[in-house]
Amino acid sequence: MDSNGRKQQILDVLNKCNGISTIDSLCQRIFASRSTVRRDLIALEEEGIVKRSHGYVSVIVKSANESPIGMRRIENLDKKQLIAGKAAQLLKDGMVIFLDSSSTVCQLAPLLKLRHNITIITNGINIANELSNAQDLKCFLCPGVLKHKSLSIVGEFASSFIKNFNVMHKMGIRSILRSPFRTFFIAFAIAFPFSMSCTLLASQNAVNKMFIGYFRDIAKYDVKITLENYSDADKAFNALGEVAGVGEREVISEIPITLKSKNHSKIALLSGINRGSNLYRISDVDDVFYEPPTDGIILNKRIANDLDIKEGDKVEISTGYAPKKKTEIPVTHVISEAFGSGCYVDIKNIEKYLSLSNFSNTLIFNTQRGSEDIIKKTLTEDTSQITSFSSKKDTLRIYEDRMKSSKFMLQMFIYLSLFSGVVLIYNISLISIRERKTEFATMKIMGVLDKELRQMIFMEQVVYLIAGLILSIPLIRVFKWILESLLVSDSYTLRLHIEFSMYMASLIFCVMMLYISGRAILKTIKKINPNDSLKERG
Questions:
Q1: CA 288 distance to own-chain centroid
Q2: pLDDT one-digit tens code per residue, 368-408
Q3: How many angstroms separate the CA atoms of 269 and 333, rounded?
Q4: CA-CA distance, 249 to 257, in Å (whole number)?
Q5: Who contacts 316 (Cβ-Cβ below 8 Å, separation ≥6)?
Q6: DSSP letter string, 12-53
Q7: Higher confidence at residue 54 or residue 169?
């Protein structure tokens, strides 16, 4: 049996004898020679644990607060060595660790000499002394007040010194860097709902802008009526002036045409508009306004791509109302139009291009507040030539009703992405906790507080959030491209603009997601039993 084992036996005997015994009795009980027992007693006396006097030996009375470090070092020595061995397995070269002056850590200190380039921060003089001859280790000793029995440095200066290192934060970052695949998957679990919620909110805003902006900035009229007999347009226009409540009014043309390029053809609706019109304007998705050209046609990008033409090319137009007339006209502008017919010319050129004289089949006008229903009743009763009566108020009401259901679906998608993110992060983190179970158990045994564990987990969550936000940059671009490609037709185009408020709303979702998963992770860590975990590892 080695010296430490005999010392432990001596202390056990003394404890059973109420702290005092003869040296001869000790020799008989531990089956050792008198000289051997004397050497062990001298060592214990030097450590301040026992006192010899005239053939007797007694245990020095313990302080009300703590035992001398020498006595604690040999208590449960085998268990402390096991813990130290497990802790040493978790250490790698290049780490920064903090060691207190506890008796368990005293067993770990000699094992550190086998490592390289490790930085140690300690408040234990015994630990610093043990590592004093280690050339590859850097050791920081805390300043402060010395506690003689524990050989530890304590006080305000020591606490301030330790806080400067932010040990738990660094441990959190180290844990992340040690598992890049786990970090990537958790970052993706954050980036996916963040990107999804940003683009979904932007799509809702784009749809609102497309419809509401169309009637606010482009189609600025209150009512549009379509006539059956095109030659009666001027007559109907003049008759509107006699209807009470009718304000500013204009005549436009809407003609179904066939567009042909060299290898392609397409059916579209041609809109003839007056230059300088106040009630109907041509605009692109960037709110740039255009006047109908004096000679030429404006096409939206969707139609131009289908025909494989660009600005400056010529396109052939024809209509069933004048089948023999085919005219090639230049394309003056190709625009990205949010909503509209997609083909625009000056109404004065309708006869020139299609040989249709006085071909005006649509009237648009504004109404005085509260007079729209009366005007509708008057026109539909007195004018049998009216084939349709379209009200901006009714159109917006239908749109708002439909948007209620779509808004609900949008919120459901956002909540679903949030929920999936929470589940994914929690499961990945749960797997990580199981892999790090021994690490957390060792930290608990070595005195790491729940508060410090929360700091470490918090730092991990912060790094995950930053990584997720970085990863979301390309994901947002991908989702935008997908939605803009899907939400396109011959009559409308969506351009998604993600505003700052959308980013902030999505960020709040992600913070909530991390908070929920973080709380669940801390609960799981709190349930870890250090002894059971180390036994399983062993």
A1: 34
A2: 877 777 777 777 765 556 777 778 887 777 777 766 666 67
A3: 17
A4: 25
A5: 259, 260, 261, 326, 327, 328
A6: HHHHHTTTEEEHHHHHHHHT--HHHHHHHHHHHHHTTSEEEE
A7: 54
Query: pLDDT tens digits, residue range 449-504?
Result: 677 777 777 777 788 888 888 888 899 888 888 877 776 665 566 677 788 888 88
Residue 330 phi, psi (nearest 5): -75, 150
Share of the chain above pLDDT 90, in %: 1
pLDDT band at 39 (very low <50, low <70, confident <90, very high): confident
Helix (H) or strand (E) holding 187: helix 180-213
Instruction: Give the integer Cα–Cα distance in Å for 79 and 84.
Output: 9
What are 485-488's contacts with CB under 8 Å, separation 24+? 487/203, 487/206, 488/302
For the record, the structure tokens of 207 come out as 């749809």
CA dihedral 75, 76, 82, 88 (to 10 degrees): -30
Q: Which two tokens stand for residue 459?
A: 């730092």
In terms of Cα–Cα distance, which of 418, 524, 428, 531 is closest to 190? 418
H or E stretch covering 253: strand 246-260
CATH numbers and ranges of domains, the chain: 3-61 (1.10.10.10), 73-165 (3.40.50.1360), 177-211+399-537 (no CATH), 229-384 (no CATH)
Q: What's the token pair of residue 411?
A: 């919120």
Q: What is the pTM of this model?
A: 0.54
Radius of gyration of the chain (CA): 42
CA distance 462 to 73: 39
